[in-house]
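Raw record, unedited: FUSC family protein
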Amino acid sequence: MAPMKQKGLSELTDKELLQLVKKSKSTNITNAVLIGFLIGIVFYSVMKNSLGFLTLIPLFFAYVLINKSKHNNKELAALLKERNLNKPS
């Protein structure tokens, strides 16, 4: 049995693409909560002790989440514009 491959965004149908946009809204909210939590950990750590290596780890994860979500959103927006689709409300 061959492993299933994940479709690229350009290979999705219009309906699948619109469903992905709806799903990305909840993903964006989850990412925002995680980023806020990680920034809170950094803030608490700096106030309690000082800036150290362990303080930088949450900053790194927040940076990764921000860049990943920014890249995905730009790609989705470009594909929606290319196909002349409107974002669902």
